[in-house]
Design a protein that fits this description.
about 350 residues, alpha/beta, Rossmann fold, 4-stranded parallel sheet, 12 strands, elongated
Length: about 350
Amino acid sequence: MKNLTLKDIAKALDISVTTVSKALQNYPDVSPKTKKRVKEYAEKVNFKPNSFAAYLRTHESKTVGIVIPRLNHYFFSSILRGIITEAEKHEYMTFILCSDESYELEKIQIERLINKNVDGIFLSIADKTHDLGHIQNIIDKETSLVIFDKYSKLTACSSVVIDDQKAAYTAVEHLIKKGKTKIAHFRGPLLPQNSIDRFLGYRKALDDYGLEYDKDLVFICDDINDTEGYNHMQTILDEKIEIDAIFAVADLPAVGAMNCLLENNIKIPEEVSVIGFSNWLISSLITPSLSTIDQPGELMGRKAFQVFMNEREMKKKKKKVEFKKYEIETTLIERDST
């Protein structure tokens, strides 16, 4: 059996194609009786709208793309859950792509989404992204763009983030109030804004509490994994660097550091306290359990899609869209490691 069209339904019901189209899209200028009649008939004959034809009529594909830096990441999977949950409510299909923290792959993924005529793109910028030309291309093509988590101050779009500097300050302040004075920082790469802000929060907490900043207590985690955390902690032990606490840019380096400490029979938190960032599931399962900063990923994802929908409505109404930075509150979770 051939695929039915709007024209076939219009002929069967003896009404115009325009009326059928409007009835299926719930236009207010079509009577409830006609809407009911059209929808019941469409369901009866198992009518499936042609998505490409719909795009030509409405210039909406009802699809969005999400580009995340990592797939095996609890925080990003939480954000995906939030975006997808909201997208389902509004009957949007989602394309999920991964940049693997690569600038080149991020460019390719974004180009693919633009070529798919997606209505919007949700992006967390890769750590190795050093040029924003491909992101500007999204804006130039008038595709809606919402950036989440890892962002750039130079992008003309809305973003959904946390106050990384404030959250990092809270983590380090927690260690200081526990009596810690030699606090190492396992920071992220030099480029991403959230890595910079967490480092600045660390510095500010030291300054505010009269503790001297020591650059030799700062170690860079390029891949932000447990192996780096382990290796940095081993370096500290090998070089006999005096520390009594660690603030890690994320939970995995913190977990790696804890494994190294435990293997060397160093007591946590009595000798060295450790606090992470993000509140991965593993942070509550290891022994001792890891204190951390909770990032509400699912809430961020929901908010990101809501921002996208609001901006789409503004564009439809020919109103000026004002881009904003939306900040989601974080929470300190104290566990056994501090």
